[in-house]
Design a protein that fits this description.
Belongs to the methyltransferase superfamily. RsmI family. This protein has 242 residues and is an alpha/beta fold. Helix content is 35%, strand content 19%.
Amino acid sequence: MNNPTGKLYLVPTPIGNLEDMTFRAIRVLKEADLILAEDTRTSAPMLKHFEIHQKVFAHHQHNEHQSSNEIIKFLLQGKNIALISDAGTPAISDPGFFLVREALKFNIAVECLPGATAFVPALVNSGFPTDKFCFEGFLPLKKGRQTRYKFLAEEERTIILYESPHRLLKTLDEMATYFGADRQISVSRELTKMFEETVRGTVLEVKQYFETHPMKGEFVMCVAGAAAKPAKGKYDRDEEEE
């Protein structure tokens, strides 16, 4: 890890099961000069479990613009810094994008390790096409939410969304309105954990299920793409002309 300037490492951490931590991720965290964590309290048990004792500083959505300036200074001094989020891969619906962009402005090396990301197992488990998909993360809470639904209603690729427990039923209601109550969806929660669960069916069927079952943990929602619209005559006309 000896560089003229330091290197910024983005290190995925388990989304639930600690056995999903990679040997490489543990090594990079142990060798880093310091670790940036989305929430130091959340990361502490995981770091302790793997006997990682480096200094840990908070880097989250409320301070990332301010803290990035100091982090860049450390990197330019030759320090190697590892960024982790509460779970999964940094910058995927978590802090990280802004810091990466700032580091690249100063020609600082950035390396992202492969590892846990919640939407990948949810997509593969869904049974929907995986060759092309659209990752939306969390939809806007208010402004722009309706517009986004209308746009996605025509999306022919598999759609992937993140959602929190207290908004799940409302989101399913909205999906019924904009996608249709019979659109096929797959909802996964507590991925890699003891009570991991994936529920598949129509929007209406999945909503009815969660109205009477626990809604704990983070949710990944996979939505079947809209049926492809038939071509509007171009090839038919060509055939007729032949």
